[in-house]
Amino acid sequence: MDEDEGRRSLTLTLSQREREPTGTFPSPFQGEGTGVRVKKAHATESSKEKARGWRTIVLGMGNPILTDDCVGLRVAQEVAAWLASPTGAPYAGTVTVEESSLAGLSLLDLLAGYDRAIIVDSIQTRGGKVGALYRLSADDFASTVRLASPHDVNFFTALELGRRVGIAMPADVVVLAIEVQDTSTFGEACTPPVEAAIPRAVEAVLAEIRR
Question: Which range, of 5-19, 153-167, 169-183, averages the lowest pLDDT?
Answer without folding.
Answer: 5-19
